[in-house]
Write a structure and sequence with these properties.
The protein has 306 residues and is mainly β. It folds into 3 domains: 2-114, SH3 Domains (SH3 type barrels, Roll), CATH 2.30.30; 120-175, SH3 Domains (SH3 type barrels, Roll); 184-304, endopeptidase fold (from Nostoc punctiforme), CATH 3.90.1720. It is built from 4 helices and 27 strands. The two termini are 39 Å apart.
Length: 306
């Protein structure tokens, strides 16, 4: 990359052909791109990201601006969103946790400087924010699993943490950076089992509704592992290949065409799928048989997390 100083502005020059980029995680469109792409990809204009944070319980990330357009992911309370453009009621940019690009409603965002830094993650299927540190008091807000909140000192009874707007029970949250461990190294499966019955939601990644890769990204985040958003990205980035003929274990990942699930034991898998329209456990053999009806290779990979 070369830059030519033109006084008030710097002119970016593209040297050579553009590189190959995944459009899902590359903030580039016909008229605008992230300033980080200057010199790598051509755009008429480049923008410096504006740091924002999700202030709603959750907000769908969409492929285009407008509530009727396809959802591609979901932004949860307290997660960062880097805004590159605002038009009407929609902001275009990318998520801080996985760089996924899309549009979210402006009303769901607040400037990061105006929000406290999150300290805890909701680790239960959902957490209630009470007016007082008492489960008999009124509820101010409900936050889904995966939401990030800023918590202060414990209440006098020690069972609640003070947030900016009420109190949350200590059993519903965990400090960011810590790992939830339910059963030794297999905490991922135990976390996923908490979500049995949660509705299938294309693009969803919270305890209120999720898709297959959203489930995996969510539970790995709670065990301290950063994972990309989609199943093909997860297949490329996560774990080590399991040898042919080696038995599967609790916590192993199995990848299918455009799908992923997690083993709860050597024969059963938990996953979020449109077949049952919810998070469910079923025999792995049944899932393989369904994919074999339309695909010559129903299982693309078996991966083990370290």
């Amino acid at each position: 990359m070369e830059t030519a100083d033109t006084g008030a502005h710097a002119k970016f020059v593209l040297n050579g052909p553009e590189g190959q980029f995944d459009p899902r995680t590359t903030a580039h469109r016909g008229d605008l791109a992230d300033i980080a792409l200057a010199g790598k990809m051509f755009a008429p204009h480049y923008a410096e990201p504006m740091p924002m944070r999700c202030s709603a319980p959750k907000a769908m990330l969409r492929k285009q601006s407008g509530k009727d357009h396809e959802a591609v992911s979901e932004l949860l309370h307290g997660e960062d969103f880097h805004v590159l453009d605002i038009a009407g009621d929609w902001a275009w940019g990318y998520c801080g946790h996985d760089s996924y690009v899309g549009y979210v409603p402006v009303h769901a965002l607040q400037h990061r400087k105006k929000t406290p830094e999150p300290t805890h993650l909701v680790s239960a299927r959902a957490a209630l924010i009470f007016i007082e540190p008492d489960f008999k008091s009124g509820v101010m807000k409900r936050l889904p699993m995966g939401a990030r909140i800023a918590c202060g000192e414990p209440s006098e009874c020690g069972s609640y943490l003070k947030t900016g707007k009420g109190f949350v029970h200590v059993r519903h949250v965990q400090p960011i950076g810590t790992k939830v461990v339910f059963d030794g190294s297999n905490g991922t499966a135990a976390l996923a089992e908490q979500l049995i019955g949660a509705p299938y939601l294309w693009g969803g990644r919270s305890g209120d509704g999720l898709d297959c890769s959203g489930l995996i990204q969510m539970i790995l985040m709670l065990t301290g592992v950063a994972a990309p958003r989609d199943s093909d990205q997860q297949q490329a980035a996560l774990g080590e290949e399991i040898g042919e003929g080696e038995e599967l274990r609790r916590g192993d990942l199995v990848f299918f065409p455009n799908h992923v699930g997690l083993m709860v034991d050597k024969e059963r898998i938990i996953h979020a799928g449109s077949h049952r329209m919810q998070v469910a456990i079923e025999p792995l053999a049944d899932v393989v048989a369904r994919y074999a009806a339309d695909h010559d290779q129903p299982v693309l990979a078996r991966k083990r997390l370290s």
